[in-house]
Amino acid sequence: DLKPKSLLYLDGVSVSFDGFKALNSLSLVVEPGELRAIIGPNGAGKTTMMDIITGKTRPDEGEVFFNGNVDLTKLDEADIAQLGIGRKFQKPTVFESHTVWDNLELALNRERGVFATLFYTLSAEDRIRIDEILDTVRLTGRRNDLAADLSHGQKQWLEIGMLLAQEPQLLLVDEPVAGMTDAETAETALLLRQIARTRSVVVVEHDMGFIRDLGVKVTCLAEGSVLAEGSIDFVSNDPKVIENYLGR
Ligand code: ADP
């Protein structure tokens, strides 16, 4: 039984919208400390799966467990975020008129429910934590620059840093490298691998070069369930994956 030792456990998850089955008996198991890549054609159910995990959408059927025994289908979005599940949407939502440092400070304080944010004094530990995050997301040299002046890729990294301030056990990342330069894309693969040393990460992406760089287990979804799962070579040579996704 995989449930007790998995960080994320989905089994037989189905959900329909107006009679259309967006997820059809989907199963997915993510281990603690695992980085997992999710691929699949548009409409495969990737976003719906993320919505189920974060509590935005309720499944009609199936099990969704976190940390072995926490039933996510019984919790609302705010409780699930509090448990340590962070989600990064495709479009970066940083505070453009604040510096990189202040964005991270705001994220750290938001985690504590301090909305007076910048008036709240940071402890020495907080400063060390922000320095560590800056280093992880490759923005140490940009700490005093306005977020607005960052490249698109750097804004994505800053937003990942803002999520790290909340110390998630599981980070869900939606199409991080869309619109990035080749150099930023390659750096993002390294960055996510680094982050996954201390937490689990599930990343949805279409960029197959990036997926290959990640070098991790890949799950290909189609029509709301798992079409193939395994190494990138295994999955990309699967005739069903070629027919439904790669060959299109
Ligand atoms: P992906 O992220 O893989 O492109 P989605 O999860 O966004 O796939 O969508 C799966 C299917 O479910 C699509 O056909 C989409 O139109 C449908 N769908 C998703 N969310 C809703 C919703 N809230 N209402 C109606 N249909 C939806």
Automatic annotation (TrEMBL):
ABC transporter domain location: 8-248
Record keywords, A-Z: ATP-binding, Nucleotide-binding, Transport
NCBIfam families: urea_trans_UrtD
GO MF, any single term: ATP binding
Lineage of the species this protein comes from: Bacteria, Pseudomonadati, Pseudomonadota, Alphaproteobacteria, Hyphomicrobiales
Domain of life per record: Bacteria
PROSITE patterns (alphabetical): ABC_TRANSPORTER_2 (PS50893)
Record's keyword annotation contains Metal-binding: no
A Pfam family reported for this protein in Swiss-Prot or TrEMBL: BCA_ABC_TP_C
Keyword Ribosomal protein recorded: no
Species annotation: Rhizobium halophytocola
Protein name: Urea transport system ATP-binding protein
